[in-house]
Amino acid sequence: MYLTITETAEYLSVPEATVKSLIQQKKIRALFDGSEYLIYKDQFTTHLKQVEKYKYLVEEILSEPIPEDLDIKDED
């Protein structure tokens, strides 16, 4: 399935200018049909899966309790 620049911006939750910039930098593959750019939606699937994976890992790390430091001495 192909998306326009506007649809791609909505799908990725970024401004249209960002999508245009990424196309110019060749970070997003796009076809130009003579009047507009068409972007293949499935090229983002792997990236979005990795982002979700990293979010899960970060949440897991942040939820671990901080261990007590054995070197701290009670001065009371």
UniProtKB/TrEMBL annotation:
<dbReference type="Pfam" id="PF12728">
    <property type="entry name" value="HTH_17"/>
</dbReference>
<dbReference type="InterPro" id="IPR010093">
    <property type="entry name" value="SinI_DNA-bd"/>
</dbReference>
<dbReference type="InterPro" id="IPR041657">
    <property type="entry name" value="HTH_17"/>
</dbReference>
<protein>
    <submittedName>
        <fullName>Excisionase family DNA-binding protein</fullName>
    </submittedName>
</protein>
<feature type="domain" description="Helix-turn-helix">
    <location>
        <begin position="2"/>
        <end position="49"/>
    </location>
</feature>
<keyword id="KW-0238">DNA-binding</keyword>
<dbReference type="GO" id="GO:0003677">
    <property type="term" value="F:DNA binding"/>
</dbReference>
